[in-house]
Amino acid sequence: LRSLVGSEMCIRDSLSTGGAGLMKAQGGIIGVNVGRLAQPVIDAIDSNAIRAMSTSRRRSSTATKAAHRATVPGHTIVVDGWGPTRSFSPIDGCCYQLCGVDEATDWPYEPSNSRTHNADVYFSFFAKCITQARVHDHSVKIIKVDAAPEFRSEALKERCTNELGVLLIVAAGGQHETVGKMEKQQDTLTRIAEASLKRARKGHAFILEGRLDAREILRLKPSGNDDVSREQRFTGRAPDVTEQPPYLFGCKVLIHEDEQARGPKGSGTRTSEGTLLGLRAGVYHVLKDESQKVVKRRYVRPLDEDVLVRRGTPAGSLMVDGETQTPANG
Question: How many whole angstroms separate alpha carbon 324 and alpha carbon 306?
Fold first, then answer.
C-alpha cells in the first residue's frame, strides 16, 4: 500500500487526525514527512470508523467562555480531575486522573494517575505542573480549579501561596466557565483514548493509560484553527518525532533487555516482546508479555502496526501490508 498511503496511515492514527490534519501536521512536526496526499488517500483516511470515535463530539456543556483568560504561556494552569473509572487500572491500581492545561496555549500538562483525589494529592499535582512549566522557562502565577469540596479549604489556598507562590482560584458553584478549557480537553483526551483502546482491542481498564498516551498526541496537534502545534506555542520549539515516533497505542513491540535481565550468554533472551502503552517524558512505556510488568525504553521496534491500521477501515478501500508501519527507531 505504500504507493497509495504508505506509513502515513500509522502516523495518522498515532496523531488522531484526518488526512487534511496530517498534511498540516507535517509542517509543524519535525519527522512527519508524508508529502501531498491525493484525494482518494484523504478519503480513505477520513473514512476510518475508529478515527470517527475520536473526532465525533457532543455539544459542550461549557459553551460559555471565561470572561478573562491568560494570554501569556505558562501564566495560568486550569486543573480538573477525571474519574472514577469503572475498574482499577491493571498497571497502577488507580481510578482517577488529575489533568492540567495551559490556559493561553491549550498545552496539556502531563496527567497524574491517583487512587484518590484529596487536597494533598492535588497540591502535589500543582507542584508537578509548576515544575514542568519551569523547565520551559515559564512562571506560573495562577491555578484555576472547580468548586469540588477538596478545594474549599483556606489552608490549601494558603499552602499554594506560601509554598508554591501561586494564587489558587476556586470557581463558584455551577460556574463551569472557570475550568471550561480543561473540561473540554478532558472530553478530547477521552475520545482519543477510547478510539485507541478499540483499535488495540483493550478493555476499559486501560482507559487511564490510553488518556496518558492521548496527552502526548494532543500536544503535537494545533489547537482549533491554529497552524502551530500546542507544543510549539508553549515551548517555542517545534516538536521533533524523528527519533521517537508516536507508535500506535497497544501495538506489539520488540524491546532490548537490560544486561542484567538477559540471562546466560546464548540463552536467547536479548530481546522481549510487549504491548506499547505510549511515550511519556522521552521514554516508551511497554507492558512485557511474560512478566506483565511495565518497563521503560528509549527505543522500541513496532511489530504489528499494520494489523491495527486495518481495524476500522472500510473493506476494499485499502490493502494494508507491512510497509504501512511507522519506520522503526530501534
Answer: 6
